[in-house]
Predict the 3D structure of the following.
Amino acid sequence: MSETGNNGSGGQAMRRAALAIVVFLALTAVVFVLSPDDLYLWIRALHIIAVIAWMAGMLYLPRLMVYHADTPRGSQQSETFKVMERRLLRAIINPAMIVTWALGLWLAWKGFGFSGGWLHAKIALVALMSAAHGYLARAVRLFAEDRNEKPARHWRIVNEVPTLLMIAIVVLVVVKPF
Ligand code: HEM
């Protein structure tokens, strides 16, 4: 069934995203099963890959909303944005967040026994990032129902939130200042 007229390429993108998730999860399972001496480093690498996917989506989704907010309701363009937003959320952002949390918590337990001021601050900021994720997921639903009342300027400001959180999180985990 066609949703926007671009279903062919959209469907292909969904299949590619699903394939990427399957390959990634298979690699993670292989790493855990083989349990190499440098298991921690492998999991850290997989954690960073998941973080990149999550952040790519968290930075792109509000950008789509900046353009969507200026698009007339009911137009073909608006319907296309709805599909792009929903697919980005379901195929990339949601699975990437779950994997980032799961592997991050494993690293925090295995490497640091959940101790360290920087780690606690990092987890608090990641919780805020997850709240921003929830806010955007709700916005996807509102846009889908043509109920967004916020102007493009609002989404421009929202766009900065994940950026600022990401900078603070990366500094905390790399520099470990306290
Ligand atoms: C609650 C979720 C998360 C937890 C518990 C967590 C925990 C950790 C831990 C313990 C490490 C290993 C640090 C080390 O070995 O020195 C790590 C690495 C890393 N994390 Fe997370 N993390 C989470 C989410 C995130 C997010 C959302 C980001 C980015 C926005 C992020 C970015 C990174 C980066 C870049 C590294 C690699 C640091 C390095 O190799 O020096 N993490 N994380």
Observations:
- The mean pLDDT is 93.
